[in-house]
Amino acid sequence: MKREKIKQILTDAPTGRPALVKGWVRTKRSAKNVNFIALNDGSTINNLQIVADVERFGEELLKDINTGASLAVTGMLTASQGSGQAVELQADSIVIYGKADPEKFPMQPKKHSLEFLREQAHLRFRTATFSAVFRIRHAMAYAIHKYFNDRGFYYLHTPIITASDAEGAGQMFRVTTLPAKQPPLNEGGGVDFTQDFFGRSTNLTVSGQLEGELGATALGEIYTFGPTFRAENSNTTRHLAEFWMIEPEMAFYDIHDNMDLAEDFLKFLTKYALDNCMDDLRFLSTRLQNEEKDKPADQRSMELVEKLQFVLNNDFARCTYTEAIDILRNSKTYQKGKFQFPVEWGVDLQSEHERYLVEKHFRKPVILINYPKEIKAFYMKQNADGKTVAAMDVLFPQIGEIIGGSEREADYDKLTTRMAEMGVPVEEMWWYLDTRRFGTVPHAGFGLGFERFILFVTGMGNIRDVIAFPRTPKNAEF
Ligand code: ATP
Ligand code: MN
């Protein structure tokens, strides 16, 4: 008999025919003459109820069917008497692939804390919460490729090992084959990287943008979607040392086209989740409500599905950095001295400021543009005021910055002048500057942190819980 997926069986709910299923036991419950086994095969959050006759299978076999054990079951699909499901499987034969000793298996059928499960990251896929998160993560990765493919963007694979340190001064991971003990030194006493594998100092990439621009200024519209590395020592619920970033880059787009694309893209992904992941979303919504039930009403989050619909159905607010500073300075929070970090024109906004704008002031996602040039990267288009650049950050509830992007400076002289001012090595970047030297065009792009978006869609609170094997300071187990 051919194995069937539990998702398909529960969706079609056929009865009166045999079926073979394979999966892992979530729970087992004993009734008078039968055992009810909840079997999950990862295809859906929902379990198939297996009904096993005690007399037929015997206590000896049934006692080994515990949470975590893996089974193959054949039997007859019948309409279920119970209320939880339309169809169940009356078992004819059960094969145990592997037992899971209840004394030793860490994933017991009870509530485990997310902190505990982080220490069991190899097994946490077996829980309903994490299987839901990773099914949604997959669906979002697929939706990202679909979105861009349907719009004529090309998926460009930019390098993971790079020699350029465009934005990431001091927060890059070095890639080297030189010995850690007594590396070769140059005359100045520094490490002699000419003897290193690539003949120069290399790092893990912090962004595929610069290479992305090279593609966009020929292919028109490209996107990257790959791992990104930052050695910043920020132990927050929103930062990873290794995360995934989606970076579209578009020729002939200005900052407004860029904002429109970012908003449309985020709404497309949100709609895709609502259209395709409803079982998992409902489960995560209930999880979140349980988690927050002891919080005062005004500190609870909006119900998850409602929140996604809200983002889908409302225009994002758009405002300039300068306006945002005014809003913040006029706020009660500021006037009562309740912001931890200073608010004045020229400072970089902190998460507390971003969240105030989104959650308290506009009460919806916000796109901020035209930041002071001093706090932004060298490649951003310089505005006519001489003070700001055409940067844009998209801010989301509970998360803060989810997207950072800009229109790029397309003028060779302005760009190189700014690079010199900011100490960016102009000679080393000759290949990047060639885009401005030959057939330069207005262009723009942005970076979406994949895990930050998954936090939003799943309602999870910690970025370590939306990537399979998180890499954070002092943590690279698994
Ligand atoms: P933040 O100020 O929140 O650290 P950033 O300004 O460093 O972000 P960018 O360099 O603009 O961020 O990167 C683009 C996007 O990548 C961000 O909007 C965010 O979604 C995501 N991102 C940045 N750093 C991290 C990180 N350490 N872990 C996970 N996602 C990140
Ligand atoms: Mn950062």
How are the elements arranged and paired?
Layout: H1 6-12, E1 17-30, E2 34-40, E3 48-53, H2 54-62, E4 70-79, E5 87-98, H3 114-119, H4 128-150, E6 154-155, E7 161-162, E8 174-175, E9 202-204, H5 209-219, E10 221-229, E11 242-251, H6 255-276, H7 278-291, H8 304-313, E12 317-320, H9 321-329, H10 332-335, H11 351-362, E13 366-372, E14 388-396, E15 400-407, H12 412-422, H13 430-437, E16 443-449, H14 450-458
Parallel strand pairs: 3-5, 6-10, 12-13
Antiparallel strand pairs: 1-2, 1-4, 2-3, 4-5, 7-9, 8-9, 10-11, 11-16, 13-14, 14-15, 15-16
Helix pairs in contact: 4-6, 4-7, 6-8
How would you sum up this structure, described in words?
- A hairpin with a 3-residue loop joins strand 14 (388-396) and strand 15.
- 36% of the residues are buried.
- The mean pLDDT is 95.
- The chain is globular, with a radius of gyration of 27 Å.
- The strands form three sheets. The chain has an eight-stranded mixed sheet, with helices on both faces.
- Helix content is 32%, strand content 23%.
- Helix 4 (128-150) crosses helix 6 and helix 6 runs antiparallel to helix 8.
- The protein has two domains: 6-107, Nucleic acid-binding proteins (OB fold (Dihydrolipoamide Acetyltransferase, E2P), Beta Barrel), CATH 2.40.50.140; 126-171 and 206-465, Bira Bifunctional Protein, Domain 2 (BirA Bifunctional Protein, domain 2, 2-Layer Sandwich), CATH 3.30.930.10.
- It is an alpha+beta fold and 478 residues long.
- It binds adenosine-5'-triphosphate (ATP) and manganese (II) ion.
- Residues 230, 239-240, 243, 245, 401-404, 447, 449, 451-452 line the site of adenosine-5'-triphosphate (ATP).
